[in-house]
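Person: I keep going back and forth on a fold encoding question. Show me how you would write down a chain together with its backbone fold. Please set it down just below, with no commentary around it:
Helper:
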Amino acid sequence: MSHPAENGLIAIDVGSSRVKLGWFPPPQAAESHSPASPAIPAPAATWTIEHRQVAATALRAEIKDWLETLPSAAARYRMASVCPAVAGQVEQLLGHRLHVLTATDLSLAVRCQPAREVGIDRLLSAVTANRLRRPQRPALTVCLGTAITVNCLAADGGFEGGAILAGLGLSAHALHTGTATLPELQLSALQTPPPPVGKSTTAALQAGLYWGAVGAIRQLAELQTEGQPEMPQVFLTGGDARWIVDALTQHGLSVTYLPQMILSGIAIADQELS
């Protein structure tokens, strides 16, 4: 009988807007792939879909089609989810082969009560950050998705909690639907830093959304680590994160951008469970 690690891993991250899957080959196969970092596992292949725009049957079919392109049908399946309805569709597809991760599966001291109510995506980001941060240096994990979360890790690696605010897309939609005349900004307009003084309504929206997010993250980073002997390491992920990496780095923060941070956290949890 083969050891579980020999079969590879399918990591599934069900977010509020997207489903992301990652294929982590068995150790021997993984040697041919260059990891994102030598300290964390990185997927050899990924697949992402906006689940809000897809019917349940179509979603299951698309996941099934992608899984059939992979070389190992005997892989383990681990899922992290913050969207119960979509997670239920994945469970219906994979059945008993799927293990749904909870806080109790993670080697992480969670200093929030109750721990089970903390989003598993936030905890898995912390698991990844703990593999990468310097010993005894505090860290922050920042995810820019449907929501923006800024989470604090103590010098000993414990998850202290954090802050949650509306993401760029959610904010843009709220400004449009909650007012009479403001247009709904397309997020593609935020791919480069806009001028902080907008010369039109659209430009002012761009300035407010972009620099408001950057400012909130910077301020929370300062407040959450107040009194610490050194600035925290910041680990950034999420669908919108790539647009603000440079803006954060230019203001004194030590920022590492990890687009597959949650998938890597699932893989680390899998290593500890296997």
In short: The domain at 4-102+264-273 is CATH 3.30.420.40 (Nucleotidyltransferase; domain 5). Helices lie at 27-30, 56-67, 84-94, 120-132, 168-177, 201-224, 245-249, 261-273.
